[in-house]
Structures
1.
Amino acid sequence: MDGTSLTALAEQQLETAREAHSGRAAVTVYGGHEHRLRQTLIALRAGTRLGEHDAPEEATLQVLDGEVALHAGSQVWNGSAGDHLTIPPQRHDLEALTDAAVLLTVAT
């Protein structure tokens, strides 16, 4: 059985994102080509956006730290630490309102 401290991993990735030119950092927590489930911890410096992109068939977003806004068409969802969202099946983008870390879970 494998275990990971998401809190510690989020802190590490936030530090990396703060220093990165792109303002973001990410690490796969679980999954890969041999798995149907993939979990990625994404850290974003305040003001950074993940550009608009297509949604996978099934995905959720859990905010681990900070505040984010997910934009999907005319809808906006604001989330903060502890919030969980099922990502709508349409093009969307994610904006860090503060330094933030999220856990993206995707079923492939």
2.
Amino acid sequence: MSKVKGLTLFSTMILLLLAACGSNENTSIKLGEVTRSLFYAPQYVALEKGYFEDEGLDVELQTVWGGDKTMTALLSDGIDVALVGSETSIYVYAQDSNDYAVNFAQLTQTDGTFLVSKEEKPNFKWEDLKDSNFLGQRKGGMPQMVGEFVLKQHNIDPHNDLNLSQNVEFANIPSAFASGDYEYVQLFEPTASVFEKEGNSHVIASFGEESGHVPYTVFMAKQSYMEENTENVEAFTRAIHKAQQWVQETAPEEIAEVIQPYFEDVELDILTSSIDRYKSQGSFATDPILDEEEWNNLNNIMEEAGELPEGDIPYNELVNTEIAEEVIND
């Protein structure tokens, strides 16, 4: 064999080898989360422990900051999968979208906010809130709707019995509460625990415990993406389920150590206590299935808040449980 033919054959073999290696590259998925929150601990576990990579996925996480912005990014193909409140899928569907968002894997199953007071309330009763200055969440978002639902369960009309403020951006709520003359606020962890540790405020009740199970934060994708990338969605769901099981079986201290890279400004003891608080009230879903009872509870909460769109809100169209059921039965 001539040197030229030998070099040509060698080059061809190298190209074929590179092509074969390239075919084994992970599939890229752009994931957008509505905010950065340790409420989403299983998601960060899946990223840090390599569960997505094990499924052949390269998941690129970005924080979009806000339900409206997250859904805009999803519908415009800026992201492939959104982690956001399932109410947003209802809003999109009600606008007669031709390519609506489908919920396929539930991550959290309770509200994640806590009632925080600037003053100690050792004998707190819900009626103590009446006539108080209350810093609420964004109108139409899950925290505010669940908050209103719980208050009404305790015979408090949030718009008539409180001095309710809803004009502060989500990301600015903690600082607004700290610097303003508000007496109460709804806060997620770890902010609630940080405020408590600093002695500025006190956690006095849990909206998650009061409101019951609800599909609070869910992974969703456009209908077209689900149809065209079924295997990727299944792989994504398997990774999430593996993380859910690990979180369920693991002590808060170890979970905190794993997800700390996503919360570099939060002390480890705060992360640990916050995770323990969420675990103890069953906030982290133990499997990715969004069942119909939870969906109906969401609808009741939205209707009570005056935010449920008119017309049919079909569970069977907006929720795909087949993938999650297949994953947990593997």
3.
Amino acid sequence: MSSVQHPEQKSEQKSPFRRWLTGVAQSTDLGMLPVIAALIVIWIVFETLNANFLTPRNLSNLAAQIVVTGTLALAEIYIILLGMIDLSIGWNSVLAASVFSLATVFFHLPVGVGIVLGIALATGLGFLQGMVVSRIGVPSFVVTLGGGMIAEGLTLAILTPHGGSVPLADNFTTAIGTLNLDPLWSWVLSLLLFGAYAAVTLNGIRKRTASGHEGGFAATMRLVGVAIMLFGAVFMLNAYRGVPFLLMIFLIALFASAFVTKSTRFGRHLYAVGGNAEAARRAGISVKGIQLAVFIIAGFLVGLAGYLDAARLGVASASVGNGDIMLNAVAAAVIGGTSLFGGRGSVYGALFGALVIASVSNGMNLLGAASSVRFIVEGLILLAAITIDTILRLRRMRSGRA
């Protein structure tokens, strides 16, 4: 007597990998899969066109190039998760660097004091902008556009009397911007970072399994992927000069942000507010408090990015703000998979988005291509990311999960 298999039974017989693959095909939230795929394609193309692209030396340069864009993108992701935008991050970071240079070079204050002053100023600006947005209700686009213009004016007032730039000479900042970790310490700190990430991930798998939910396979695959990328990067960087101090600082900020957004009540509330602010309010979440806190956190990260940029360049310069520093950060955040509609995305997108932007720029430079070509390629990648995000949102709306 033959038995008939129901669809549910067939589904249960599928391997975890096939269930994951089916889930991806039917998903309305692809996360960072598109940007990772795009990054792999970009690296293959540039390595094919120029064999120097994936050498340890060039990867070391690439690692240093992503730090500032990645840190600013990290700040921007916090804001975008709310469904908002921050157009002041570029000039606010330059202003923080300007205050640091003024404090240490002309007022001869200790380096630590200068760093605190610069980051505190950017954090304060984030607080003020957050107050206007959350308490008064002025759109973030307008508030941060005006805030960026004010920061630009203050920066020019500080640096113009000194020729528009102030070279930094303290040994600590020079070391941060130019030196690399000893290979042994690179492995030790990388293991510590991965251990913290693994502990959080495994705890999440345990909770999901205990509650009867699936998803352990996908989380395990992410864990394996992070291990391969992290330790592979350390191996390649150690083959040249080691992991740059700048990169390690950025990774610490990244992993800390991942913990805050994924493993704390604040993080859950952040996604809830970004997904549907009115529903979050009715659920008892302090929407205004979350919005203000996010702007403060973003301000801190912007101040940190300003100091790291000054350390990398060895100078605090107003010309940095006139470049595409802000546009690259916003592009990296969106390319990294953060939805412009709010409530969806991961802070790890700051790393992958910055890698895409820096890889295109670095690869074009190796090929001797004109900067116009680089802008066109970056623009096409950004448009593709936004298009995918919009299509997935429409799919969620049709399925009632928007």
4.
Amino acid sequence: MEHIDFNNDLLSFLNQSPTPWHAVATMKKQLDSSGFHPLDEKDDWSLQAGNGYYVIRNGSSIVAFRTGNTDTTKAGVRMVGAHTDSPCLKVKPNPVLRRKGFLQLGVEVYGGALLNPWFDRDLSLAGRVTYGDCNGQVQDALIDFRKPVAFIPSLAIHLDREANSNRTVNPQTDLPPVLMQVPEDDTTDFASLLITQLKAENGVTAERILGYELSFYDVQQAGFVGLRNNFIASARLDNLLSCYIGLQALLETSGEQPALLVCNDHEEVGSMSAEGAQGPFLSSVLERWCGAGKSRAIAHSMMISADNAHGIHPNFMDKHDENHGPQLNAGPVIKVNHNQRYATNSRSAAVYRHLSDQLGLPHQTFVVRSDMGCGSTIGPLTAANLGVTTLDIGVPQLGMHSIREMIGSDDAYTLFKVLTGFYQSPQVF
């Protein structure tokens, strides 16, 4: 895949994936069109050498893998991990608020979101809805309103003279989005709005809504930014970017070596769920694939945890260690933390540097300032659960956890090329 095609397809992937469920559905389509076979955890598996397979859990996490043509107990498995979720505003179970003729929805903040950028944006709504059909069966469907249906207006500066110096955001009272104006005797029910959307979008008739997991998102599409298109700006770059890079690398491989991509949900809230990185999903898939030889396979394996890194901000350069401020468009970032917030060690970092250098591609290193706390990734969790040598790496970005984030337009393709080489490497350990 060429650089221009790669970035254009990336923009399309981001625009089609407003929620983890949509991201996994988009990935599934690409895997299906590339000849990968779906597996169901409830069924027996009969895996064949040289084939591609994928497993989905909860609709929001996915493991895709190529079995390769070599014995996993001797060759190991080349693994890449990412996560499908991003900080956002999720609709509460009983959300409807009626205030002075406005109909609003109560929301819960998911993950460590930057809240101020959510004001004064055109918002839509998407996610999974569970409903009872006319046959008494429980069904799931994805919905995406696609158009602007909500807005969170800022309080005018005339009513808050300290807005530019001392404004804070109360998630309970300040964030309910406005959906429409309604008369005083209005009885609009949120469930009825969802039933109408299910019919319009999916052609299904829901007798009643049984549950939902819905998120607001910014309708502004992903695109190039800058006088010379040096940057890409989008929502959910953290971490749909890594999901896309890992998937394209897996699809690009010859299939000779055993290779795997895992994209977990719930990383932004700690990963402790059935489909999160602290859960058993990946380990279960490896057990069913490698069987009694799983432990030997792990000893020959390596995991690359791909999650975006903090690029140096030109207005806040003092927030980085003076020798470890990654620049946009200067290559992917090897993330190091000796307190194990990142799983990188000297050997796993060396493997990446060696592959990158062989391809003539750039790389950087990030260490958080010693007087600041460090975030984390699925890397340490996966390393601890599996006992696999792990590297934490990521594309440098600005605006992390904002409603709109920015990366360099060269870095994702660079990581894609190195991960493709990693997947096809005859020997890792």
